[in-house]
């Protein structure tokens, strides 16, 4: 039996299956479908032809536009119908054609989206992704499985993010970029393959970081790049060092517990400013 709040408005041509939980002031437009294990929190709005299915929770004040499919079964080759979930935070907007999949048992069983996120037309969030708050995915952005995106990151149109990759807080990914390795917080990545083209200084300033601190970042980052290049040269001379280098990556705070490791970086600070780079 569905639990439908008295203040909810459901169009007579919408389908709300038995078992769905519909909160106060929810609005469901024509030709929408709400599955039996869906929870729509207070003030959620589904425009026409939207689908919310699976074991899915949509946070208060969120809006789902036409042709979006929220909570579909994962596209993982290992999907076997196990119990998994999708949780979308409050005040998120999912524009036309957005798709979000539930998690998989192998990836923790949950896909999670934070609050105040914006997903533009035809963007995709795959299974087991964990997204923070105030993130923007522009049109046709594709997140593969197990991707983590931290707060306030912006992903421009058409970019693709490799599975198990992590994008740091307030990073900026340029349009049509290919993200194959982790992007540092406040990093700006462009190109295919993606290279670190600079730092999101405007984002750093807006987040309250003092100017004096911002000026300290380039030399520290340059020193880190120098160390990484040295390690890479040592590995080429002595293959036995490769395993130790990988262990260092895995044990770092940013990579701890990750299956995929390595940052995107530029070979020198000058190229970090003017373009050109590689991954380590």
Summary tags:
single chain; 280 residues; alpha/beta; eleven-stranded mixed β-sheet; nine-stranded parallel β-sheet; 4 helices; 18% helix; elongated; disordered C terminus
Quick take:
The protein has 280 residues and is α/β, with parallel strands linked by helices. 18% of the residues lie in helices and 27% in strands. An eleven-stranded mixed sheet has the order 2-5-8-11-14-17-20-23-26-28-29. A nine-stranded parallel sheet has the order 3-6-9-12-15-18-21-24-27, with no helix packed on it.
Can you walk me through this structure?
The chain has helices spanning 201-206, 211-237, 240-251, 269-274; strands spanning 3-4, 9-10, 15-16, 21-22, 27-28, 33-34, 39-40, 45-46, 51-52, 55-58, 63-64, 69-72, 85-88, 93-94, 99-101, 110-113, 118-119, 124-125, 130-131, 136-137, 142-143, 148-149, 154-155, 160-161, 166-167, 172-173, 178-179, 187-190, 195-199, 264-265, 278-279. With 280 residues, it is an alpha/beta fold. It has an eleven-stranded mixed β-sheet with strand order 2-5-8-11-14-17-20-23-26-28-29. Strands 3-6-9-12-15-18-21-24-27 form a nine-stranded parallel β-sheet, with no helix packed on it. A hairpin with a 4-residue loop joins strand 28 and strand 29 (195-199). The longest helix is centred in the last third of the chain and has 27 residues, at 211-237. The N and C termini lie far apart (54 Å).
Computed structural class:
alpha/beta
Write down the Rg.
21 Å
Which strands sit side by side, in order, in the main sheet?
2-5-8-11-14-17-20-23-26-28-29
Mean pLDDT, all residues: 87
Q: Tell me the helix content.
A: 10-25%
Spatial shape: elongated
Largest sheet: 11 strands, mixed
Q: Point out poorly predicted stretches.
A: 267-280
Ends apart, CA distance between termini: 54 Å
Report strand %: 25-35%
């Amino acid at each position: 039996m569905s639990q439908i709040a008295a203040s909810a408005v459901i169009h007579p041509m919408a389908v709300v299956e038995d078992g769905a939980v519909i909160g106060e002031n929810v609005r469901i437009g024509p030709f929408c479908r709400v599955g039996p294990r869906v929870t729509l929190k207070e003030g959620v709005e589904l425009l026409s032809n939207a689908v919310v299915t699976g074991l899915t929770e949509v946070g208060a004040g969120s809006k789902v536009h036409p042709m979006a499919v929220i909570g579909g079964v994962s596209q993982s080759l290992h999907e076997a119908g196990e119990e998994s979930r999708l949780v979308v935070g409050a005040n998120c907007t999912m524009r036309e054609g957005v798709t979000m999949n539930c998690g998989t048992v192998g990836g923790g069983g949950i896909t999670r989206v934070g609050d105040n996120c914006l997903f533009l037309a035809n963007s995709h969030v795959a299974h087991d992704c964990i997204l923070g708050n105030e993130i923007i995915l522009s049109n046709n952005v594709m997140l593969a499985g197990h991707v983590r995106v931290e707060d306030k990151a912006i992903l421009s149109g058409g970019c693709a993010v490799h599975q198990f990759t992590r994008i740091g807080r307030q990073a900026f990914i340029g349009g049509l970029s290919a993200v194959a390795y982790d992007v540092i917080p406040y990093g700006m990545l462009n190109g295919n393959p993606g290279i670190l083209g600079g730092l999101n200084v405007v984002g750093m300033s807006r987040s309250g970081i003092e100017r004096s601190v911002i000026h300290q970042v380039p030399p520290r980052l340059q020193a880190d790049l120098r160390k990484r290049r040295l390690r890479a040269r040592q590995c080429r001379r002595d293959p036995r060092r490769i395993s130790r280098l990988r262990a260092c990556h895995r044990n770092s705070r940013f990579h701890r517990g990750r299956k995929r490791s390595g940052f995107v970086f530029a070979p020198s600070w000058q190229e970090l400013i003017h373009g050109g780079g590689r991954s380590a």
